[in-house]
Each structure stands twice: as C-alpha cells, then as structure tokens.
Design goal:
The complex is a heterotrimer of chains A (about 425), B (about 375) and C (about 290). Chain A is of the alpha/beta class and about 425 residues long. Chain A is built from 14 helices and 14 strands. Chain A has two domains: about 190 residues, Rossmann fold, CATH 3.40.50.2300; about 150 residues, Response regulator (Rossmann fold), CATH 3.40.50. In chain A, the strands form four sheets. Chain A has a five-stranded parallel sheet with strand order 2-1-3-4-5, sandwiched between helices. A four-stranded parallel sheet of chain A has the order 7-6-8-9, sandwiched between helices. A three-stranded antiparallel sheet of chain A has the order 10-13-14, with helices on one face. In chain A, strand 6, helix 7 and strand 7 form a beta-alpha-beta unit. In chain A, helix 3 crosses helix 12. The longest helix of chain A has 20 residues. The radius of gyration of chain A is 25 Å and the shape is globular. By secondary structure, chain B is an all-alpha fold. Chain B has two domains: about 240 residues, no CATH class; about 45 residues, no CATH class. A two-stranded antiparallel sheet of chain B has the order 1-2. The radius of gyration of chain B is 22 Å and the shape is globular. Chain C has a single domain, classed as ABC transporter involved in vitamin B12 uptake, BtuC. Chain C is about 75% helix and about 5% strand. The chains are: A alpha/beta (about 425), B mainly alpha (about 375), C mainly alpha (about 290). Chains in contact: A-B, A-C, B-C.
Chain lengths: ~425, ~375, ~290
Amino acid sequence: MDVFGRSNLLLRRSLGVIVLLCVTLIIVTACGIGGTTTAKNTGPIKIGISLSLSGDFAADGQAFQQGYQLWADKVNASGGLLGRQVTLDIVNDASSDTQVVTNYQKLITIDKCDLLFGPFSTKLTKPAAAIANRYGFALVEGAGGGPSVFTQGLNNVFDVSLPVANNLVSFTQLILSLPANERPQTAAYATQDDPFTQPQIDLAKQVLEQAGIKTVSYTVYPAETTDFTPIAQKLLSAKGDVVVLGTLLQDFTAFATAFKQQHYNPKAIVATAGPDQGDAFLKAIGGATSAEGIMVPNGWYAQQTTPGNQEMVQAFLKKYGGDISAISSDVPEGYSVGQVVQQAVTKVGSLDQAKLIQVLHNNTFTSVQGPVKFDNTGQNTAIQAFLFQWQGGKLLPVYPASSDPNFKTPEYPRPNWP
Amino acid sequence: MTDSMAKLLKVGSLLLLLVLALLFPFIAGNSTYVTIAIFAFGFAAAATGWNVFSGYTGYIALGHAAYYGIGGYTLAILCQHWHIAGGWIPFLLVPLAGLVAAVFSVPLGAIALRTRRHTFVVVTIATFFILQLMSYNLRGLTNGSSGIDFPLITDWGINIPGISFADFYVLPFYYVALALTLVALAVSWFVRNSKFGLGLLAIRDDEDRALGLGVRTGPSKLFAFVISAFFAGAAGALLSYYIGGVQPTFTFDALFDVAIALMVFFGGIGTLAGPILGALVLESVQKYSATVFTQGGGGVYLIIYGALFLVVVLLLPQGVIPSLSILWNKYVLRRIEPTDAAEDTSAGTPGAGPVGDRLPRVNEGASA
Amino acid sequence: MSLILDAVITGILTGGVYALMASGLTLVFGVMDIINIAQGALVILGAYLSFVLQQQFHLDLFLGLVITLPAMFILGVIIYVLFIRPLKHDRTMLSILVTFAIALIIEGVLTIVFHTNTRQIQSPYVTQSFQIGDFYLSYIYVFGFLLSAVLLGALYLLLYRTKFGQGLRASMQNRTAAELIGINVDRVSAYTFGIGVALAAAGGMAFGATTAFVPGSHYDLISRLLAIIVFAGMGSLGGALIAAEAMLIVENVTAVVWSPVWSSTVFFVLLVAILILRPQGLLGKLEGRKQ
C-alpha cells in the first residue's frame, strides 16, 4: 500500500507538468488548425486595420472605423478597386502596444490582407509601421502624425493628415494678422505631456514669442491628470490675453469648466483637439453657448468642396444619422486614407506593395481633407491647416481667409462665457 | 502503478514539453502564433520570477511593472548611447538590463519590506508610480512622453532558404524568451528546494514564528524580491525590443502587475508550473479574444474577461493546478479503502482529507 | 501667494470628496479585511447614475442621491453575497482578484451603455460660482464638501452611537470574538459593504461634477484611493480624512509652485517617507499576528 501511496504522490506532484503538457498540446493544435487562408487574386480585396475599439483611444478608434467604412461602402458601390470589391478586416487593439503588434502580424500573416491601413494615435502607429515595414507593406494612416513616427527611418509609412507640429500655424498667423491695437500682448500655454500635443504647443509658443507676444505661463501636465483645478488656476492667475491648450477632449472639458467657473475670459481659446469632436464636444462642454468662439485647427470641414467630401458627408448622415456636427474629424481622416490608397493602387494597377510605396512617394493625390503630397519621411506637405471656430453651434472655418462662402470672419475677441 | 512508472511519466512529459516548445515555431507555422508565444513566454518568465517572491513569501507585490519598465528603458538607452545597431547584440544586453532592474530593486525593496501585508502592496504600487513619472519627467535620459526607439533590425546576417526575413525575425525573440523562462523556472525550482526557499515558505506561513525559529527574514525577503525584479527587468527589455520602442505609458504599464498576479493566481500561486501555465493560457486567450470581441466598444470583451475571472476565482480559488490536484486526490481516495486513505493522507498531504473541509495551503497542493 | 491660497482652498474642498470615496474603502477593509478594487469603478458608476438622472430626468443632483444611494447600497449587498461571502480561504488576496474582475465588468457595462465619450455632470451648481478675493469658487466644490462632511458625520454617528455601529466596530477589532458574543458578523459585513458602495455613489456624484470622466477613469482613481487609505492607516476613518486632505493639498500646491508633472511624485515620495517612519500609516494600529 505504501508503494501505491508514494507513486500516487509522485503522480500528483507531476500533475503540474501534465496539465502544462495538455495545455501546450491544445495550444499547438489550435495553432495548426487556425486560419490558413491563402491569398487569392480574385474575390474581394482584404484591407487589414487594427483600431482602438476599447481602452483609452476608443472614442477616436470608433469614429475612425466610420471613416474607413464609409470609404469602403463608396468604393464597393462604384465598382470596387481594380474591379474587385473591398472588405475591411478590422481588429481591436484595446489601445495597447503589445496588442497592436500582434494584430498587424495577424493581419499580414494569417488573414493575408492585401492592404494595410493605420491604427489610431502616434503611440500605436510607431510599432505598427515597423511590422508593416518588415513585410514590405505600405502603411497609410491618418492619425499617427507625431514627429516621432517619422524619425524611425521607415520609408513605408504615410500620413495623409496634417503634420502635427504645424497644426497651430494657422492660429499663430491669425493672431499676427490682427491690427497692432487689437493684438494680444500675452499668451498662456498648457499642454498634456504627449507626443501628439506638446510639439504643437512648443512650435506655436516659439512663433508667438518671436512676434513679441509675451509668454506669461507655460505648464506641462501628465496625461493622467484628473484634477485640473490647480493648472487652470495657474493659467487664470497669469491672465494671458489668449490661451493655447495642448489637449484632447477630456482635459479640454476640464479646462473649459474651470474657466467658466472662474469667469476667466481670454480673448481667444485654441486647443489642439477636443473642440473638433462635433457632438461629443458639445455634450461634454454643455451646449452651443459655451462652445461659442472656441478655436481648433483642422485640415477638414463639412462644407469643404474637396473631392468626394459632399458625398462622404451625405453618406455619413444617411448611415449614422445625426447632423453635420456629429462628424468627428477622425471620419475624414480615415476616409482620406482610403481615397489616397485607392488612387495609388489604381495607378500601380496591382497590389504590389513595393510599387505602391514608390507611387505613394512620387505622386500627388486628392482627398476630402485636400491635396496629399508626401515628403520622403511620409508626412503630407501639401495639405493646408485651417483654423476653425465654434459659431452659433457650428464649427466653421475662419482662417486663412478664402473665397469659399463657408468661411466666416473670426470672432475675436470671443464672447464671454454664458 | 509503480514508482518508476510515475517517474518515467514525469520525465517523459517534461522532455516532450521541451521538444514541443523548441519546435513550436515550426509546428505553428505562422509568425503570429510565434508573436503571441513571445509575449506569453516573456510574461511567463516575469510571472515565474514574481512567484519566487510573492508566491513563496506571501507578500503580494504590485509594482513589478516598475522593474519591467526599468529593464525596457535600460536596454533602449544603452542601444542609443552606445550606438548599437539592431541585431543580435541587444539580446546579450538583456541580462544586463535585468541586472540594472535588480540593482534598483535593492533600495526600493528594502524600503517596501519595512512594511507588511496590505501596506506593502500599496508601497510597491507607489514605487511604480514614482518610476513611471520619472520616465516622463527625466527628459534628458528618457526623451519624455515620445519615448525611445530601438535600432531597426534590417538584417540578421543569417539566411535560411525558404524562410523570409520577416518570418525569421520572430525566431530569435522566441528562443530568447523561451530561454529566459527556462532560466526563471530553474531558479524557481532551485529556490524551492533550498534552505533559503524553506525560509521563504516559513515567512509566508508565519513571519514572526519564522523569525523566532532563526530564519533571517529580512535578507531572505529582500533577496527573493531582487530575484523577481531581475526577471521582470529582463522580460521588459526583451519585449520592449520586440515591440521596437519604449514609451512611458506602455513600458511602465500599471496593468502589467495585475496581469502577472492574475496569471500566477490562475495557474496556482506558490507552485512551479502554475505561473507558466497561467501566462501561456491567459496571454494567448487575451491576445486572441481582444481581437475577436469588439462589440460594444470592447465592453463585451471586458465583461467576458471579468466574468471568466470570477468563475476561476470562485470555483478554483487556489488556481488550476492545486485545484486539479485536490480533485485528483479525492478521486484516488475514493477508489482505495478508507483505512489506506487515512494513511495516505497523513503521509502525503496534510489537510486534504476525505472530508475536504480544510483545503491545504496554497503551495502544498502541487508542484511540478 | 494668493495662488497658493487658492490651491489650498480647492485642495481642502476636493480633499473632502476624496475622503468620502476613500472612507467606503477603508471601512470595508476594516471590517472584512478585504481590499475592494472595484471601489473606483463603483464611484464612476455612481457618477454615471447621477449624470443620467440629471440629464434625462432633470433631477437635482443632491435630490438624485435619494435614489442612487439606496440603489448602490443594494448593489453592494448583492456583490457581497454573490462574490465576497463565498471566499473562504485566502480571503484578502482573492478579494483583490474578485473585486478587480467586478471592476472590469462594471467598466464593460458602462462602455456598452455610455460609450467611451467623455462626460461631465452639468448642472447650475457646476457652472455658477461665487467670489472670494480675486478667485471664484464653483458651488459644487462647496456643496460637495458639505455633502462629504454630512455623510462622514452620519457615518461617525452610525459607528459610535448605534447598536449596529457597536457590532461593526466589534467585528473590526476581532471577528471571532464578535461572533462569540452573538454578533451576526456576516450580516454586519453585508451591510458594511453596502454602505461602502453607497458612499462611493455619493462620492461619484461630486467627482463627476468636478472632473470629466470615461468608463476607464477608475484605474487612476483606485490607485489614488489606495494611496490615501494606506497613508491614513488601513481601517482608520479619521486618518482617511486627513490623508485625503493632505494628498489634494500637497498635489495642488506642488502643481502651482513647481509643476503638475511633479505633483503625484511629491505625494508618493511623501507617502513612502511616512510609511518608512510609521509602517502602519498615520493613524493605523500596528498589525499584530493575524491568525
């Protein structure tokens, strides 16, 4: 009996190994069975995309998905790409870098996608671009505009949107165009510590300082900040004539609320992002009267007469409902990615990635956001930055002046908080 | 069943496992599965290291993301400052990155270990936040929120016909991750079978009594803590190199700790194979399911993930391996005569009696 | 100088709200020896409930608490019965896992219902403000602080002036002995958990009115709340109040005199320093051997 007991004990002690073995076997077989789709030259063209459908970037990721989907719908309705229909293979990366790495690997090697579109945010575009590069794929994206994406030395990443650092240039031009007696004397800056926002603020600050506008406050705060009161107080006590904010929607809302509470009325408030989020912005800030006069730079507006824009806006309203202000700026960014790829692929005449990369580098394209011409790092040098302002519940382009009837005169100074 | 047969079964299984692990990239035949395996083994190494401290001593540390981050940043900064080209050399520096993390853990561990239980948990969380903030704020060294990129690997210097550069790319990372896990497992096994390890287990059962019995509790705990920091750091260096860069939010990731702790608890805390099992299962399931359950803005995924944990914790409260082990015991006991059962129980595992009213302490359940 | 004064004043007022959120956490820990990682998610849930009542039914924020507090109390009792009570062994550690899982589920449900768009509770209290010196203060800060004071006061009375409170304190001091003298520790635990969750709802209303939030906001929140209760000494209510005030004042002052990027660092360094000198926290009792 002792023998039985001992061997039972031994067996029990090796249970861990056995369980591990079984699990490994299951995993290995699962891998073996797992998808081995082979690439086909007929049938639909598969476009691989990883988007942040959950996690920190979820709101933007979901809006981006709308942009990509609208483009795909349109292409398929008008005969497809190279005569083939397109399907979007969208996987969720939960705003995580390890997941985005896994996802693009999967899109390329398991799903055998023919084309790749970019994820959301500078942070996730960096690792995604490196994998695409390894497999020789072009990665065309609309939301990875931070300078650090383009310093990796990759030749396969293309950002159809406005280069991030230049975003606020139109705002500085507006300020400098004001007659001397109206021009602000001082400016206060606050920015999230983030590769998307901070470069924009630093460039704007440099330009305005050179023009003699004194910096009375400059604050960098962590992206995870929850209590914005002290930062708002700092801005407030500096009493800058204009306030330049490197924010996303959440922190912009916090600042706006604090300014409102403090009856602080700078002559101009401009933010890198947040006010461009359409309905989401209006809801967060508490209605159109609060939004009045707030500015945001952007490469796109709903009334724009760029190629395909009206079609996209109408399709959006039909598919997702709401009105024009429901369209987040992520939508045209995603849509533009599709447009640029479509033109390039048509030009190549096949899905050859090496040729596609070459064509993308050497040609000019059109998009709902305006013209697209990539420099050798992959940034769009042709697109123009517009300054937008909320006026009467609508986000309207105000600068640089244009013959376009949609352009309004900038409200400067902005009205006081309601 | 005889003694030698059981032994044979164990050794055979172990060998088979090793062979399977070594051949996995070729069996799987796809670099995506290898990518998931790289993350799984990276986490398995970190989880095994974590278990050497938290599993054996019972002190739950939730700040090892700090050492993961230090490892990643160390390797990135070294590559940048020494102008190391992408390729094999950074792999050689992975142990060095782990060592730097271990050096950091000496003072930080010494401070944290002045406290006990829950306070200890929170002090480790606090050290994590301090270090994450440093990675943002010490811009000269860390390049702030933009982070640092690793040198791009364009050529491994090896060409195997039939395997493309991109498919070969994952192999070095896979085998280094596997090697790291095996080293961690060896260390864990060695600690467990040493006097030092016995001291750690005594600390978990009753620290004051252990001290009374002559265990040098302070240095023992600190040494185990440093070992665990080393593996977290080495895993951080390796996985960051694979991802291609370090950034404060990702490389110092608060969820890393939760992930590690869940893996160890899932597999069985204090066991040898548990952390590895937990890492392999959870990392694969998570990586796979996140891509599949995209409904409701990822909300469905969160609910399923959360519910799965509730089920595991409530039904298998000691982790998969110990719980299965207890079930196995009960099964055997029911098959042999009651008198033998009593004999077996008293000789083998105290507590796992036929009544099963008091479950054995976590680590006594099983070990590989 | 006035900037520092402003920072201190808002620090005191928001500190009260944090004390309220942390009190639920520390109370539950004191009685049951478990750390409720879901407290942060429950605060966010409370914020969304207040948001909905205000937005959809135009209910006054404070009146809305008449609905949310009992609802969240019941939710707390349900969570206790379903998920905490079944934990028989290694309760402290397993409770961390279980409550973390609950936090994920709450986050998932909120994500499905409200999406991940940023929300902030809008109300006249939030936008209207009054002047002190050259500085305006929104009513919500003052009312939020008063709410915290009232609820913490009520909690004090409950603990020290009622029979239930006696039972609760007895359970905190010695579970086994409390059972021996005929206290139904299980029922006390269930009610305590309910109270802790209800406090989270109240804190959530004040938090959501002063801070923009998304379903994922609970991760940052819980780490701050944990820091507060450890600083305070786990299980100490008075300590939680002091620690919450200290945290918010230190962070606010650091943000204005130095930089916001160093605020949390300064607080965490202070926390570690205190714990080196007093491992049991400010007002905590030294932990003896737990049997």
